[in-house]
Amino acid sequence: MHTIADFCVIPMGVTASVSQYIAECQRVIEKSGLAYSMHSYGTNVEGEWDDVCRVMKECHEAVHAMGCPRVSTSVRIGTRTDKVGQTMQDKVNVVHEILAKDAK
User: Fold this and answer.
1) pLDDT at site 91
2) Packing angle of the helix pair 49-65, 19-32 (nearest 10 deg)
3) Are 12 and 72 in contact, with CB atoms under 8 Å apart?
4) What protein family does this chain belong to (predicted)?
């Protein structure tokens, strides 16, 4: 099932700056081959349900492997059966089209 997830990995019990851990998560996601988009408070990733869930698990494993004792993640997951193959970019494009009409 095609899935779009928005997740935020939160390393706990480490320094105030967690950029190095987030960079490692981005490496994991990049290696997965899934489409993704990092934003200031997390990452959107899309693909098949099992693949999306697997990459989130691999992010946890990678952060723990860096010595982080605790990892918390917030996740929002969406699936659709009425618009097969709709991508993250498709969703953004629809909003841009609506806004473009406002500008005319």
Assistant:
1) 87
2) 140
3) yes
4) Belongs to the UPF0045 family.
